[in-house]
């Protein structure tokens, strides 16, 4: 499998590009919209790819982003939607707009795509709505997990600062209860370890 292709953009044609990698020219089918977003001839470009293998056909399809690639994979999972049809659909409607159209069951938007009639639009919505919702839920959970992880890390960092400051003040002869009482008067979250020690000393020495 090819996750992506990175090399010199050798040629731009209608419906496909050629990328040169160490003297080998890779023909990659892309939407004209996607091709327009690539750099100029001679530039080093990176294209996310879908590698299609059939008995009578081996083709590579390219995308500017992973989101476009994922939407393409969802589209070709729909019965009756082939790779080139899916490319044409994404050329007219970007991945975000397409996902919104499916979730909101917007048949009017989908039928504006060449080759998609009302029945095809209904079938696409029927087959993809739950899949896209599930993808979004996973993305939200991943994001939430990342945010929760950040909060935990921040909490640990704050606790470590306080513990380090307490240990330093104990070395100077103050007991832990006195120090903790002094720290109650401070905005601990906003201070560095050094500031905690300095402010703590000011309060304890009164």
Kindly describe this structure.
By secondary structure, the chain is α+β, with helices and mostly antiparallel strands. The protein is 55% helix and 19% strand. The protein has a five-stranded antiparallel β-sheet. Helix 2 crosses helix 3 (83-92). It is elongated and about 85 Å long. The chain starts with a strand and ends with a helix. The model has no long low-confidence stretch (mean pLDDT 81).
Strand content: 15-25%
Distance between the termini: 71 Å
Radius of gyration: 28 Å
**Structural class based on helices, strands and sheet pairing:** alpha+beta
User: Using DSSP, what is the number of strands?
Assistant: 5
**Helix amount:** 55-70%
Largest beta sheet: strand ordering: 3-2-1-4-5
Low-confidence stretches: none
- Main pleated sheet: 5 strands, antiparallel
The coarse overall form would be elongated
* Residue-averaged pLDDT: 81
Q: How are helices and strands ordered from N to C?
A: EEEHEEHHHHHHH
In DSSP terms, counting alpha (H) and pi (I) runs of 4 or more, how many helices? 8
